[in-house]
Amino acid sequence: MEFRRPWQGDRQSAEQKNYHYSMRTLILASLLAFTVNIGAQTPETPIGFIPEAIAFKDGPPTLPPGSKVSVLEGNPGAEGMFTMRVRIPAGSAIPPHWHPRQERVTVLAGAVDLGFGSVANKSSVTRYRAGSFYLNPPRMVHYLFFPENTELQITGAGPWELMTTDPNEKPAAAEGTSVKVRDITPAPGSELTPTTTIKATVDYDIQNFRPDTYFLDFVFESRVPNRTIGVAPTVIPYRKGATQSHFVESATGTITLIQDLGRFVELPDLKHPVRMRVYVHEKRSETSNHVVGMSDWIEFH
Predict the structure, then answer these.
(1) Are the C-beta atoms of residues 199 and 257 closer than 8 Å to each other?
(2) pLDDT exceeds cutoff 90 at 167
């Protein structure tokens, strides 16, 4: 059985700049558990708030300084639907990151500049003003700038995680992990378009294997020197009922990775001719992933 996932302000204080450049891999869900409104009901109970009744609290350190958060429904730190509001100060930025699940955002006030790719670029964003809506697919790397004081309403399926894995770390244990692309379609040298679906059969061998620790994904070469753009494909076989189904289940095996490219191929930071490889990531803690192996480059047009 195959499961497909689509492809997935200039003025800043010193504190905000430090936030922008120092954040690496951060998981937000556990930090948001304390923000649920007193009196928030279960889905079986009618839920309603007038604006004056919505109480905001200080946001977690994964959001820009001065941010406020209010959870209206559910719990972003647990499984199930949630709705929350987030207030972000003018001049703030959130660096490139991704979420494991869909993120639906309505801009209630202010404006947000949304861009895609592993390098934040203010010249490659779309501005969403009050009244706008956008949806980010799972594991699509994106970044945000806030030119005005902004209030967002976010709805999604928990747990809500904000992750910024650095795909360029040098493998610490590459000698103990091997990964090889046995077969791939379209064939190397083919032209990639928004309608292209990449399907790769990958053999891997991981030394000192531990369950629920290792996962594989595609990375593409960026125009920025020594940078790559990471995407997370659908993994086959799919482990039904698993909390994080993208982890491989054995030390040695063969899996199939599938990626619908969509607008990813139109990213301004994507280098042409397009070069892609497969990374093996090791989850070392709840806030840290490391690259431990990589395949050879495969070139497309």
Answers:
(1) yes
(2) no
Assign 140 a pLDDT band (cuts: 50, 70, 90).
confident
Number of other residues whose CB lies within 10 A of the CB of residue 121: 16
217 plus 152 within the same structural domain: no
- Residue 18 is inside which H or E element, if any? helix 14-22
212 & 85 share domain: no
Of 133 and 23, the structure prediction assigns the larger pLDDT to 133
The model's confidence at residue 79, banded by pLDDT at 50, 70 and 90, is: confident
- The answer to whether residues 277 and 297 touch, using CB atoms and an 8 Å cutoff, is yes
Residue 34 backbone phi and psi in degrees, to 5: -80, -5
Co-location of 191 and 266 in the same domain: yes
Helix residue ranges per DSSP H, 65-199: none
List of residues 6+ apart from 109 with CB closer than 8 A: 130, 149, 150, 151
**CB under 8 Å to 36, separation ≥6 — which residues?**
71, 75
Q: Note down the domain range covering 29.
A: 14-158
Question: Is pLDDT larger for residue 235 or for residue 72?
Answer: 72
